[in-house]
Design brief:
Growth Hormone, Chain: A, MFS_trans_sf, 17 helices, Proton-linked_MCT, mainly alpha, MFS
């Protein structure tokens, strides 16, 4: 047998992990830490803002009070995010993730600065709109796009680690922000947060992140090279998957989009959770803090763990497990709709487990959609379709907040919604499974059989 034939039949080695792969993942993690300014940092200052801008000298609400501030600001920001994500995919495909990260992060920083210097409620809402523009163009869609571009193997784990940056940032802000606001005032605190957002985002974008492995002569981690053993540059038009036009005509894509709306509506229960905890714990602030800390802290660890589960058994099984745990949490939450009789002995075990189970579902809502969408639509026009698909998640979030409020207004409690949530969670898994199994059969560019498994 000739040397040439041995070489030709030898298995081709997949792309190993390199320093550049690690740097790109670290850049995505830092981008999500920067995004935590908007995702959680600003909300920690709401009590200071409400007391200063939405309460008169006699302690009475003015300018609509806290409900108006939270509702209008949140819904407006989310709707602007949704609008931007409808166009973000095409812009990312045209200009590249790095350019859009730089532009979007700068716009977000401007919005946060406007928020800091807003002299009246109207300017708060304007600032929310500017923040929504920047977030919808950059931090919302781009970290999953970068992860998918750079990682074939261990994609779920890396995505989970990257997305956990928002939890790490939220934990840091929860410690630092209240102290800064008490000592410096909330306006200087927000200025400092704007600086952190822009600086961290730009450092990650300029020094760590690259658009694609081909820009540096590499391949996705775990990808196999061409027949000659050299890195094979991928022509996007030859990648397996839907074109964006064909995806829009496919009913399974829309079924998956509906499941994203449902996920957003379910996860908006996070706005209700502190209210339930406050009722359940009463004046026991230490127990309230313990339950809330359990919820927040486990969010950080669930996201990488979900990535590992996805890489081992597939995204559908990962969704089944985590949303099943969340369903158990929902079934227990009605027990926390009235004050607890006491917290001695093992009385805290079930409430703490409920917080852990609920955080599993909320973490799933950020990790699973990019993965199940990638499996459903393929790599062909993934960056365009990811922005569109995730916009439905944010639509669900915008619809969910008033829906939970309406349930409480009509029934006096949140219990009917809490008991109905497990049914919705089951439908989310079923819709995702159906879309993941059936959509790849209609891909514009067909994939090898191994890429069509629902466990990918």
């Amino acid at each position: 047998m000739s040397t040439a034939s041995v070489s030709a039949s030898a298995p081709r080695a997949p792309q190993p992990m390199t320093t550049r792969h690690w740097l790109v993942a670290a850049g995505g993690f830092l981008v999500m830490i920067a995004a935590s300014v908007v995702l959680s940092g600003l909300s920690l200052l709401h009590p200071f803002i409400v007391r200063d801008m939405f309460t008169d000298d006699h302690g009475q609400p003015m300018n609509g009070g806290q409900p108006a501030f939270l509702t209008y600001f949140t819904v407006l920001t989310i709707m602007i995010v949704v609008t931007m994500m409808f166009v973000a995919g095409r812009l990312i495909a045209k200009f590249g993730p790095r350019f859009m990260l730089g532009v979007g992060s700068s716009i977000m920083g401007l919005g946060v600065l406007l928020f800091a210097f807003a002299p009246n409620p109207v300017m708060f809402y304007v600032a929310g709109g500017v923040i929504g523009v920047g977030y919808g163009l950059s931090q919302a869609p781009i970290p999953p796009v970068i992860t998918t571009s750079w990682f074939e193997a261990k994609r779920g784990l890396v995505l989970g680690i990257v997305l956990s940056g928002s939890g790490v940032g939220g934990l840091l802000w929860s410690v630092v922000t209240p102290r800064m606001a008490q000592s410096m005032g909330w306006r200087p605190t927000i200025v400092g947060m704007a600086v952190v957002l822009v600086v961290v985002s730009l450092v990650a974008t300029v020094f760590l992140i690259r658009n694609t492995p081909a820009d540096t002569g590499l391949r996705r981690y775990g990808a196999v090279p061409g027949e000659d053993g050299a890195p094979r540059l991928e022509d996007p038009e030859t990648l397996p998957g839907f074109t964006s036009r064909d995806a829009m005509r496919n009913p399974w894509f829309w079924l998956l989009s509906l499941s994203f709306v449902m996920i957003g509506m379910i996860v908006s229960v996070t706005q209700v959770l502190p209210i339930l905890l406050n009722v359940y714990t009463g004046v026991n602030i230490s127990v309230f803090s313990l339950l809330l800390a359990t919820w927040t802290f486990t969010l950080i660890f669930w996201k990488p763990l979900l990535g590992i589960i996805n890489d081992r058994i597939g995204v559908i099984w990962m969704m089944t497990i985590t949303l099943g745990l969340m369903a158990l949490g929902f079934l227990y939450l009605p027990q926390m709709s009235s004050p607890a009789a006491g917290f001695g002995g093992a009385a805290l075990v079930l409430p703490m487990l409920a917080m852990v189970f609920m955080s599993a579902g909320v973490s799933n809502a950020t990790v699973a959609p990019p993965l199940v969408l990638r499996h459903t639509v393929g790599a062909r026009d993934y960056s365009k379709l990811l922005s569109l698909g995730l916009s439905f998640y944010y639509i669900g979030s915008a619809l969910g907040a008033p829906l939970w409020g309406a349930i409480q207004t009509l029934t006096g409690t949140y219990n009917s919604g809490l008991y109905a949530a497990p049914v919705v969670l089951a439908l989310i898994v079923i819709f995702s499974l159906l879309a993941g199994r059936n959509a790849p059969k209609s891909w514009t560019n067909k994939a090898p059989a191994k890429d069509v498994s629902p466990a990918d």
